Predict the structure.
Amino acid sequence: MLRLVLRGFLQRKLRVGLTAVAVALGVALMAGTYILTDTINNSFGAIFQTASKGHDVVVTPKQTLGNEVLSQTSPIDEAMLAKVRATPGVAQASGSIFTPGTFLDTRGKRLTTGGAPAFIASTVPPRFESFKPVKGRFPRSSSELAIDEATAKRANLHLGQQMIVAGSAATGRYTIVGITKFGGGESFGGAGAALLVPAEAQRLLGEPGHFDQIDVAASPGITAQQLRARIRLELPSNVDVRTGAQQAKKNTSDLESNLSFLRTFLLVFAYVALVVGAFIIFNTFSITVAQRTREFGLLRTLGGSRVQLMRSVLYEGLMLGVLGAVLGLFAGIGVASALNQLFKSFGADLPNNGTVLQSRTIVVSLLVGIGVTVLAGLPPALRAMRVPPLAAMREGVQIPRRPLPTRKALIVRFVLGVLAVGILIAVGASGAGIALVIVLVLRAARLVVRLRRGEERPARRYRVVPALGHAIGSLVRWRGITGRLAEENSIREPGRTMVTAAALTVGLALVAFVAVLAAGTKATINQAVTRSFAGNLIIENSQSGNNEQGIPAAVAQRLRAVPGIASVTPIAFTVGRAKGSSNNSSITAIDPATFSSVYRIEWKQGSNATLGLLGDTGAVATKGYASSHHLRLGSTITLLTPTDRHTTVKIVGIASDNARLLGDLTISRSLAKSAFGQREDALDFVTYARGASNAQVQPAVDRLLAAAFPQARSRTATQFKADQAGQINTLLTLIYVLLALSVIVSLFGIVNTLILSIYERTRELGMMRAIGTSRRQIRQMIRYESVITALIGGVLGLVIGVVGAVLVTSLTLSDSGFVQAIPVGTLAVLLVVAALAGVIAAQLPARRAARLDMLRAISGE
Amino acid sequence: MPYAMSQADRRPAEVPLVSSRVAAGTEPRVSGGLVSSWELRRRYGEGEAAVDALDGITVTFPARRFAAIMGPSGSGKSTLMHILAGLDQPTSGTVTLDGVEITQLGDRELTELRRDHVGFIFQTFNLLPVLDAEENILLPLSIAGRRVDRDWFDTLVQTVGIADRLSHRPAELSGGQQQRVAVARALISRPSVVFADEPSGNLDSKSTDHVLGLLRQAVDEFEQTVVMVTHDAHAASFADRLLVLADGRIVHDGEAVSTEQTLDLMKALG
Ligand SMILES: Nc1ncnc2c1ncn2[C@@H]1O[C@H](COP(=O)(O)OP(=O)(O)OP(=O)(O)O)[C@@H](O)[C@H]1O
Ligand SMILES: [Mg+2]
C-alpha cells in the first residue's frame, strides 16, 4: 500500500510540491521564530556570561517594580560602596555605571540610528572589565572616551576624533582614545557602548556619587556564596545582592521573558499561516478524492476494504506532512535570518552569535507540520471510505453524504471533544480550547435540532459564493466569452471555491482588521492631541518611540529663557504599585502650576484648581482606574515606588483623558522626585508668548537644544501627530510583512485548485481549443477565474476584517474615546492586491491549460 | 521524394493566409469548401514500435458533399480527420483547406482557421456544461468576437428543433438534444467544412436519424460540406460518398449505398 502511495506521489510531483509548500511555509515561520529567539537568547546568555566574569558578588538596586523602570535615582552610593569594601572577605569592590545615553558627532548629528540602543559605561578595575581595547586604551581623564568597535565602524570614528555623549542630565564632549570590543567577541547587535571614567559617567547621569552596580571580588578562601551572605547582612533592603552567576542567570531570564513576547508575537503569524495551509491541504485532498471516486470504486469492487481506502489517503497526508515539515524546518533556518534582517530594517538590531537549532525546535516543527497535514487530510480520507463500489461502473456517482450519527457515535464524539478541550487547555492553548468549545456547542445544537425533526441531512446549499462570483464576474464579463466562462467556472464547485477563497480570506481579514485598528488609533491620537494639547511645542527625546529615554530635567529651565516662550511645563512618567496589586500603576508627574494652561483635562470631579491641591500628598486618578480601585475623592492609596519606598497619596480629583497622557494617577513632579526617584522628564510642553511666531521660536529652541541638549528635539503638534502615525505605520508594516506569508500560502492554494480543476476539465478545454479558442483566450479565462476566486476571498476577508475590527473596538474601546476610522484607501489597495494575487496564482495553471495536448484531451485520454 | 521538398516553396503565392483574410473581415463563403490531402502519413512512435496510423492518404472532399469514412478500429479514421481539421500535424504530406495549405500554418493561424472555417461534432463531451444551449451554439462566434446573425441563428435553432430548450444547460438536455445543439454550434459560423467523429456513437436509433438527417440537411439546404467518421453503416447511408480505411490506407472510395450494402461491403473488405 505504501509503495502505491509513493508511486502516486511521484506521478503528481507538481501537486505534491505545491501542497507541501503550503505546509512548509507555516512550519518555516514557526521554526524560524524558535531559531531566532533561541539564537538571540543564547547570544545574550554569552554576553551576560562575559559581563559577569570576575564578579563574585554583584550589588544592584532592587527592581521592585520590574526592570522596565529606568531613570530613577540609584540607592547605591559611596557610603554603600565603603560598607562593601569594609566587609571581611572582599578583595576588591568598585562602583560602575551602565545606562542608556545618546551618541552624537561634533556637529550634533546622532550616531546611533533607528531603535539601536546606546549605553554609557564607566570604566572598572581590570578584573571586572568585560571590554577589551582593540586600538588605543581605556579613558583616564574626564575628557577621554573609548567607543565600541561596531559603532566606530558604523559612524567612521577614529582615534583622536571627538564625539559627544549625552546622558540623562548632562552632555560632554570627548576625545576618542580607544576602540573597544566586548570580551568574548560577541556581537552586541546594534547596541553601542561608550566608556567613560566613573566620575564623568556620573556627571552625565546627574548622579554624582551614585552607581548602578557594585562589582565585588572575593578574597582567596571565601566562596562567592559566603561573601554574598555577608554583604547581604551589611546592606539595606533596597538593593539586591547576588553572586556573579546568579546575576548572569537573572539577566538571562529577564531577557527570556522579554523575548517570549516576541516569540509569541511571531508564532501567532506562524499559526495563521498553518491554518491557511490546513485549508489548502483539506481542499486539495477533497478534490483529489472526488476525482479518484472511480478509482476508489474499482478498488472496492476488487475487494479493497473501506479502511484500506482511508488509509491510503491518510498515508498520503502523512507523507505530505513529513515532506512539508522537513522542508519547513530547513527553510526555517533561512527564515530566522530573514526575520533578523526584517527587525534590523525596523531598527531592532539584535545580537546574533551563531544559529541555535534546539531539538525542541525540530520536534515541535515536525509534530505541528505533520499533525496539521494529517488532520486536514482526515475528513477527505473519511469521505474516500464512503465511496461505493458502484462508482467504478458509472460516471458521476456521488459519494453519499454521511448519515446522521448514531447515539453511540455521539457519545464517543462528546468524550473526544471534552478530551480535546482538556488537552488544549492543559497545554496552555486555552484560546483554542475555548474556540473549540464554541464550535462543539454550535454543532451539537444543530445536531439536536436535526435529530428532533428527524431530518435527513440536506444537501449543502451555497449562497455567498455564487452571489459573490456573479457580482465579481460582472467585472470581467465585458471581456466576452472568456470572462463569462471564468465567472461560471469559478462558481461551478462552490464548496471548492469557498475553501480556496477562505484561505485568502483568513490572511486578508487579519490585514483588514489591523488596518482598521491602526487607522482608528491614529485618528484617536490626532483627535486627542488636537483637543487636549493647547501648547505650541513638545520637547522629547529625539529617539522617537523609545520611551526609555527622556530628557534632562534642566531642559525646561533653560527653555524658559528663550525669547517668545511664555511657559514651559515638564511632564515625567513613572510607575508605582498599589498595595495588594501585582500590576504596576502608571503615574504621570506634572507641574501643577503650569500644566492646566497647556493641557485640557476632562474633569469628572474637580477642576483645574484641583491641581493646586496635589502638593506632595495628592493625586488625580483617571476614571477607569478610580472605579477599578474603588477610589473616591478623599480616599487614600499607598504606593510602592521604584526606589522601594512606600508613599501614600490622597485622591483630590478624578479625570478622564482620551489622549492618555495622564496615567492611572497624576502626581506633582516634586513628589515624583522625592518619593519615586524620578530624575528625568519625558516631555516638555512649551507655550509661546502672545504674538510670538513659530517661525521664530522653534528655530531658537532647536538651537538651544542642539547646543546644550543634543538628545532632545522639538515637535509641533502636527509633527508630533505625524511621528505617532509613523510609529503606528512601522508596526503596521511589520505586521503586514508577517501576514503576507499567509497570503502567499493561500496563493499556493489557488494554484493547486486551479490545476486540479483544469485537470478535470481537460476535455472541455480540448474541445474549446478544437473549435478555435486561442491559447491566449484559454490563459485569459483561467486568469479571470483565478482573479474571481481571489476577489471572493478578498471581499469576504475585508468585510470580516472591517466588521470585526469595528465590533471589537466599539465593544471594548468606545468608553475610552476610540475614534472609528475606515482606511478606505488601504482597503482598496488590499482588493487590488487580492486581484493581483489571483493573476500571479494563475500564471502556472494558465500556461498548463493553454499547452494542453488537444488531441489527447478530445480523444478522452 | 516530392514531399521532401521544402513545402513553403510549393505553397501557391496567391493563396492568402487565413489570418490575413480574417483581418480583412470578409465573411468566409460556404461555396469555397474543399478539403484535399496529398500523400498524408502519420507515424506514432519510433523504430521497432512505430505505428503508421496513416500510410499515404491522398483524398479530396469536394464542396457541398457529405462524405462518410468507415473502417475497423485503429484504421486511422480519427487521425485522418484530426489532420484534415488542423488539429494534428502529419509526419509528411500536405492538407489544403479552402485553398490554404494548412500543414504550413502555425498554432495561431491554425486556431483561427478552425475557429472560422471548420465546424466540429464529437462523440461525447461536446458542450460546455456551464453554458446554456444558446450560449453553447454561439460559442464559436463568442470566441471569435463576431456579431451574431440572428436570422441564421433562428433558422438553425428551428431546424435542429431545440428552440424551446435554448435556456437549458447541457445537464438538462437529453443526449440527442445535446448532439443537436452541437450540430447547430458546428454550423453557426458557416464553416467551410464540418467534421464529425462518430456523431451518433452515443445515440439511440431515433436520435441518430434525427442528427444524421440534420447533417444531410446542412449539405442539401445550407450548402455545407460534411466529413463524418462512423462505425455505423446506417449512419453512413445518409452520406453521398463512402470511404473505407484499413491500416492507414484507403481501401474503398465510392458512392454511398444502403445500410445493407454497406454492411456487405465492410464484410467483404474484412
Ligand atoms: N497518440 C497516439 N500515440 C500512439 N499511437 C496512436 C496515437 N493515436 C493513435 N494511435 C494509433 O494510430 C492508429 C490509428 O488510430 P485512430 O485513433 O486514428 O483509429 P480510429 O480508426 O479512429 O479507431 P477507432 O475506430 O477505434 O476510433 C491506431 O493504431 C492507434 O493505436
Ligand atoms: Mg476514432
User: Anything to note?
Assistant: The first strand of chain B starts at residue 35 and ends at 44.
